[in-house]
Amino acid sequence: QVQLVESGGGLVQSGDSLRLSCAAARPSFRPYTVAWFRQAPGKEREFVAGMRWSSSSSKYANSVKGRFTISRDSAGNTVFLQMNSLTPEDTAVYYCAGSLEDLGDISITTAGRYFYWGQGTQVSVSS
């Protein structure tokens, strides 16, 4: 059963920006922790950014720190990933993930701790 729906991917040039969105399929579905992961061809899925829904505290992978920002709307139904200064190394399928647990600083980066996933959205950055 799909609980999270991503949108906003596309093809951009190096240096451009994109904003991804992740919406709960049902308004009543409110995971405690949400995160963005990405998977490039031939590579393992990797953590990008995560936040705790209620406190808005966030964590970022070193590779995106200072360029990407995770946030949520005031209604709390949609999570965003603002991606600036994109490079070809950011090319991947981006997935939104949700957990009903309050994940700590280590667990928030671990894909296996998330039960709910979106279908993914492709981000392609050309040089």
Number of helices: 0
Oligomer category: single chain
- The chain-level mean pLDDT equals 92
Cα radius of gyration in angstroms = 13 Å
- Total count of strands: 11
- In sequence order, what are the helices and strands, one letter per element? EEEEEEEEEEE
Major β-sheet annotation: 7 strands, mixed
Describe the SSE topology:
Elements: E1 4-7, E2 10-13, E3 18-24, E4 33-39, E5 46-52, E6 58-60, E7 68-72, E8 78-83, E9 92-99, E10 116-117, E11 121-126
Parallel strand pairs: 2-11
Antiparallel strand pairs: 1-3, 3-8, 4-5, 4-9, 5-6, 7-8, 9-10, 9-11
Describe the structure.
The mean pLDDT is 92. This protein is globular. By secondary structure, it is an all-beta fold. Strand 7 and strand 8 form a beta hairpin. It contains no helices and eleven strands. Strands 2, 4, 5, 6, 9, 10 and 11 form a seven-stranded mixed beta sheet that branches. It is 0% helix and 46% strand.
Summarize the structure.
This protein is an all-beta fold. The protein has no helices and eleven strands. Strands 2, 4, 5, 6, 9, 10 and 11 form a seven-stranded mixed β-sheet that branches.
Question: What would the keywords be for this entry?
Answer:
globular, 127 residues, mainly beta, seven-stranded mixed beta sheet, 0% helix, 11 strands
